[in-house]
Amino acid sequence: MIDVGQLNDDQLMSMVTRHTEHIQQVPYDDESLSSLKSFSVNTNTTKLSSIKRQIEECFELVESTGESDTGLANDVPHKLDGHIMSMSGNKCSLFSMEACRWTEINGTFNKSLGRVDTSAVYARGSVYVFGSASATKYVRYSLGEKKCYEGDIVGVCGDQYLAVCYDGDHNIYLVGGRVGDRLEVSTFDIDTRLFSQVGLLSLPFISAPIFYYQDCVHIVDQNNGIVSFNVKTKAIDYDFMDLELDETNSCCFDGEGNVYVLTQDTFTRCSMSTGRSTKLADCPMETLYGKLVYDKVFGIYYIVGRGGNYRYSIKSNKWKDLEDGDPSAERGSYGMCLIRD
Prior knowledge:
By secondary structure, the chain is mainly beta. It has a single domain, classed as 6 Propeller (Neuraminidase), CATH 2.120.10.80. The chain has helices at 9-25, 30-35, 45-57; strands at 83-88, 91-96, 101-105, 120-123, 126-130, 137-142, 147-152, 163-166, 171-175, 184-189, 194-200, 210-213, 216-221, 225-230, 236-239, 250-253, 258-262, 267-271, 277-279, 291-295, 299-303, 310-313, 318-321, 335-339. 33% of the residues are buried.
């Protein structure tokens, strides 16, 4: 026996359709027809009209200001694939990896951004920045529309110095923050624009580099190695691997199981599957809190600021000075993300 009360609208409509088709294909016999009763429906048109007016009064058409993130604009086409975005204050800089050239854009954001060095991520046509000086807000910059939207962080704890990563589908994960006891692992759904808590960590983290791989959020921490949180089972794993870490470490992930870590003294590739690490060519630039960015086409970039930006070739194991004419003297504390679809 089917419990009709448990069926949704689509399932009920499907049942009605199938029953109608059955009636047309298999007509009632004389005995069944004799048992049918005739009914009619009386409609109170006065009450129905009153209800319609009440429903209409519940809605008001207003002109959009373009400031509130309603979640209606996603995946808008843009022409910035293959760029690195660096952001600070209310402006951003775009680095073309192909042209090896920077372009500065003033007034990109509606508010001044700060304390977001690990809080920016690109996902499906937009750059998202969480926390900043206003811990309870996030901003989304649509590359296709060239427009900034702002939303509230609701349902989870907002904070400054959050670390974020994208799962490649529709979730952005948020970890850590400035508040020392913040243990939440939270998620932001870019389709629904809703936040939710996924689980809790056993240790707090501040501005720790993170990445997503095989159902886990991985946190690179100088004291605890690589901490992995499984978003499905909620299990936490600590793996120190054969990896040297310090307070200056910058890291990037290639999406295929390899973590690249640059510290004051070493540049290392570590395999997530074997735990083994390989020391690579030293970076010519003294490590001063810059950022590593991995790109599947051009390799690994180390971005510090004017005179200190380099590209590393994975194939040749060599670093090359970009000579990119970077207009900013320092980018280590800036928010930064790769734009690549």
